[in-house]
């Protein structure tokens, strides 16, 4: 079993990763980090800046002794998370949500909605700390 997290280099992505680490440690399972950039593109390992970002992500995981793998996304974050969760029999998906305007609250983000509706397991949605 695994915990799957969608990571973007945003406050929401960092909060999702932090929460997923806590969940993986508590559940004593492997953490799969699906990585995309802000535009939904995957993070291919050959690009220098992206390699550094992956190193920043994995360094604390290595230090904590947490079993983990980084899964490059295809650019469709919702599809990547659901497919990864299905392929690895995940027990939880963790995603970050951004704050929305009063009108935006009526409509959940399309990626979040797709993940919630298509996920084969529970989904934990977190917001970054407001402090």
From TrEMBL:
Coiled coil: none annotated. It holds the Pfam family Usp. Residues 2-127 form the UspA domain. Belongs to the universal stress protein A family. This is Universal stress protein.
């Amino acid at each position: 079993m695994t915990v799957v997290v969608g990571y973007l280099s945003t406050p929401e992505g960092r909060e999702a990763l932090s929460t997923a680490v806590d969940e993986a440690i508590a559940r004593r399972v492997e953490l799969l980090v699906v990585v995309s950039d802000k535009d939904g593109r995957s993070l291919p390992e050959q690009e220098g800046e992206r390699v550094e970002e992956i190193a920043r992500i994995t360094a604390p995981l290595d230090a904590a002794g947490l079993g983990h793998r980084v899964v490059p996304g295809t650019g469709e974050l919702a599809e990547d998370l659901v497919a990864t969760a299905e392929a690895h029999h995940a027990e939880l998906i963790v995603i970050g949500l951004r704050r929305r305007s009063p009108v935006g609250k009526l409509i959940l983000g399309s990626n979040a909605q797709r993940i919630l509706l298509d996920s084969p397991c529970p989904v934990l949605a977190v917001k970054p700390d407001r402090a």
